[in-house]
Amino acid sequence: MQSSFVWLVALMAFGACLALPAGEDAKAETLKLESENTGDKYSFAYETSNGISRSETGEVKPGAGEEDGSLSVQGSTSWSAPDGKKYEISFTADETGYHPKFRLVA
């Protein structure tokens, strides 16, 4: 049991190191940051100096009863890969699930 725990901790530490930004990405700055939340609707957007952008909007859709209802969300994320190509993921998410679309922008 203790050996499994040590491996799990080591694996988590290795994963955390991989998630750290490298090179110029570590120096990226936020160029734009917007957010709004009215309780039943929200939106946010940001852009960074290394070409990453993200936006999302969400709205609570009422259901038949007070405890019923669902959250309807749509958004997108784009970034430039190390090879210089720009990619985008756009998505919707609602009571039917998560629906992503991936595309090469340029």
Largest sheet: 6 strands, antiparallel
Query: SSE string, helix = H, strand = E?
Result: HEEEEEE
Bin the strand percentage.
over 45%
Oligomer: single chain
Broad structural category: alpha+beta
Give the termini separation: 50 Å
Low-confidence stretches: 1-5
> Helical amount among residues, as a percent range?
10-25%
Mean pLDDT: 83
Query: Quick one: overall form?
Result: elongated
Kindly state the number of beta strands. 6
Number of helical segments? 1
What spatial order of strands do you see in the largest sheet?
1-2-3-4-5-6
**Global Rg:** 19 Å
Could you characterize what this model shows?
There is one protein chain. By secondary structure, the protein is an alpha+beta fold. It has one helix at residues 2-19, and strands at residues 30-37, 41-48, 53-62, 69-80, 86-94, 97-104. Strands 1-2-3-4-5-6 form a six-stranded antiparallel sheet, with no helix packed on it. A hairpin with a 4-residue loop joins strand 2 and strand 3 (53-62). The termini are far apart. The relative contact order is 0.11.
